[in-house]
Amino acid sequence: MDFGVGIASSSDSWKLAQRAEALGFTHAWFYDTQMITADCFVAMAAAAMKTSRIRLGTGVLVPSNRIAAVTANAFATLNGLAPGRIDFGVGTGFSARRAMGLGAIKLADMEEYIRVVYALLAGDTVETVRGFRIVSGGLLRPLENYRWWWRFNRRLGELLPAACIEAQIIARKTGVFR
Questions:
Q1: Does the pLDDT value for residue 121 go beyond 60?
Q2: Which of 19, 58, 70, 135 could serve as a FRET partner for 127 with CA atoms 20 to 30 Å apart?
């Protein structure tokens, strides 16, 4: 059975991830709530260096607050630090965006974001809805040779509210659900 812990990202949240691992937890989810907690990717990188088994994930990432190419690059970097232990939790930003006086993003925008991040991690050139063309290269280029990114959050359904049928449909369409 898997057990996870939600961690408020901070400069020393790696200590909580390390303790959770020692206690047998399987997942550590780092909050992505700008203006309230520290950057989740920095906190996850520190935890990646101090742990060896526990899976580390964004719990949950807010698509509007990071462009997809930056997110794909951050996940690729984290995977280099903790191969096969990184999870991509993503949501509409209901809490995090409220902290900045904004509402949640539309589910269609979240779906497009997931599509672009996954495509970049696959090494694809991506045409975005807004007409941008993003070419995967550099750090992401070696990912064409193996498929670790599909391990990202196959359990997204566990993070989505059961009542949010639209979000679960998006998860299935984007290949997150199996």
A1: yes
A2: 58
